[in-house]
Amino acid sequence: MIKLSRYLLIFSFYQVLSLRSIQGSSKGLFLGAKGGNNDENHNHNDVGNFVLYLDGEPAIIDVGVATYTNRTFGKDRYKLWYMQSQWHNLPSINGVMQHEGGQYKAKMYHLNPLQMAVNFNWTLQVLIQLKRMLKIG
């Protein structure tokens, strides 16, 4: 569980959230995260992707993408490194990355408004990585 202050913006339908520990300031902690599924328009096989900033400086980033071309939207798009989950802050478990398709999705997230905490229960992969990276629990 990650406890932050009340400065939270969440788009439930898209499963995208933005958390900031100090409203209106780059000081403190900022976390942006994405759930969704791997059958979305403009998909990158990145369910559970997140970025973390501390005092305005990147701590954990997403490398982004190369210039979009016809190949980016072609049948072999997931052979491109920047469309693969291992390049989106996501672990490969036993050498296996996420795959494209609607069955690869965030199953659940939970917001507890009383504690203003976010409990990421998206995928086992994401929980394992968050616990390692943020030293949670």
Could you explain how this protein is built, in words?
This protein is mainly beta. The chain has one domain (2-134): Beta-galactosidase, Chain A, domain 5, CATH 2.70.98.70. It is 8% helix and 31% strand. The protein has one helix and ten strands; from the N terminus they run ββββββββββα. Strands 2-3-4-6-7 form a five-stranded antiparallel sheet, with no helix packed on it. β6 and β7 form a beta hairpin. It starts with a strand and ends with a helix. Mean pLDDT is 76; it is low at 120-124.
Give the helix tally. 1
CATH topology descriptor: Beta-galactosidase, Chain A, domain 5
Query: What is the structural class?
Result: mainly beta
Number of strands: 10
Main sheet strand line-up: 2-3-4-6-7
- Overall mean pLDDT stands at 76
Q: Summarize the biggest pleated sheet.
A: 5 strands, antiparallel
CATH class: Mainly Beta
List the helices and strands in order. EEEEEEEEEEH
> In terms of per-residue confidence, which ranges show pLDDT below 50 for 5 or more consecutive residues?
120-124
Q: Note the overall shape.
A: globular
Query: What is the distance, rounded to the nearest whole angstrom, between the alpha carbons of the first and last residues?
Result: 8 Å
In percent, how much strand structure appears in the residues? Answer: 25-35%
Helix content: under 10%
Number of self-contained structural domains: 1
Rg over CA atoms, rounded to whole Å, is 15 Å
CATH architecture: Distorted Sandwich
